[in-house]
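Record format v2
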Amino acid sequence: MTAAKKQAKSKAGNGVTAPGVRTATRRARVESKEDAIVKAAYQMFIDVGFAKTTMSEIAKKAGVAEGTLYLYFSNKDALAHTVLADFYERLTLGAKKGVAKLGNTEERLVFLARHHLKNIIKERRILELLSMTDRDSEIYRGSELYKMNRAYVSVFDDVVREGMWRGEIKKTDELWLLRDTFFGALEYGMRTIMLKRRGAEQRVNQLAQTLAEMLIQNTKPAGATENQTSLQNLEKTARRFEKAATRLERITGQM
Amino acid sequence: MTAAKKQAKSKAGNGVTAPGVRTATRRARVESKEDAIVKAAYQMFIDVGFAKTTMSEIAKKAGVAEGTLYLYFSNKDALAHTVLADFYERLTLGAKKGVAKLGNTEERLVFLARHHLKNIIKERRILELLSMTDRDSEIYRGSELYKMNRAYVSVFDDVVREGMWRGEIKKTDELWLLRDTFFGALEYGMRTIMLKRRGAEQRVNQLAQTLAEMLIQNTKPAGATENQTSLQNLEKTARRFEKAATRLERITGQM
DNA sequence: TGACAAAATGAGCTTAACTCATTATTACTG
DNA sequence: CAGTAATAATGAGTTAAGCTCATTTTGTCA
């Protein structure tokens, strides 16, 4: 409880002490210590996973006493939570930057897929921290983690919505179907890629390309238009010939 | 170590004592006790999750002493492992039965999707046990869990391969792309369905139908047939025109 | 420099997984 | 049917990891 308060205090930028101003150096030191703890925890989680990481080892790695951890984080879960939140933040930032650079919907989707894949491959142990959190309970909606997830996912949503607006993706009210297919396929694909070590890079590209195409394919203007145009032309020609043939038959008297 | 040996012994059906035969009642009692333990653990995992389940509570629920648990399972993880293996077994059996009853590939895929979804919704806490196992390490390939997963997944694979053979699904060497998309989408979709309580049943159907269509769509014969009919009409017209043109040429004496 | 607040410490508490010496049960035999 | 050896079960005790809190150290003022 005390720790939780402190955690909030050092995270948010509220005025710590009344006089202020010259507290800067102290604050800076405190925050760098918090960073050191998070960094140590991150590394441990990556290396040996959450379950096998001990608080005492994190403390040692961060160069602080075990008790100090609890001044910054109320418990081990809260520490994992922070590590996960940082991960989401980086992920979201990278996604936004990449999308902003690209104009075409297909390119954007391929980028998002590759970006997601590469990051969950590199930091898959961090992603696993998610599975500890109870995503069923009512509490989850409204949690910081839920918001971070929404923020990340909405980058994808925005790309798709704009793609629909432009007519590059078939319109649907059920955006969740596309979203879950996209991210679900990426996470499962990641495991396959990890399992079959060979040709990882190629598989990443394959998966990203396939998913992007799957989304735009449904009513891809390119293919559909070509076929329709070709058929329409043929049919127009046919109609003209039908008329001409009928007239000819009338003249010659037979069929 | 001792416990592990015992676990193996009571699991496998090897001859426990030399004389054999009349051991039946004792074996039966032992196995029913093992069942009681697994059942208790299953229920606890479902109710409060793996982390918050204590061995002492499992023991109490199963009506045995805490130490007895370790005669049957070397540790808590091994117990979770068994619960998970049982889950896979049920899942695989159900999938096989359902597929056998259906002849059409699309129907089979819809069934598999619905079957998977309904089960991972009902027993999602069991599915979470998977995320504890280290699916990266070399050890995983060759593990019992890996084999059970393969057995389950191969039901899907077989359906898809047969669908390809029949020409109902576009052929591809990259079956893993279809597989990961299918199961990944289902798992992510499950979470969305859990989160938005309303209209779960409808969402299940929607997701199952969408995924099945996605797989067969690429070269769905239906669409292709329509096009072919259209083409056939055109060809008929063309033949008629050829005749008419020939006659016209005869009359007009040109070309 | 002294005093006060903020920060840090680590010995000790609590709890849960796991062990093992002891006891109880069962199946077989003379 | 009593004796006995093998098998099964027990729960007090050990270990270890998360967490607490009385005490100490550090930093910043007047």
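Chain A touches chain B through 46 residues (CB under 8 Å).
Residues 221-252 of chain A form the longest helix (32 residues).
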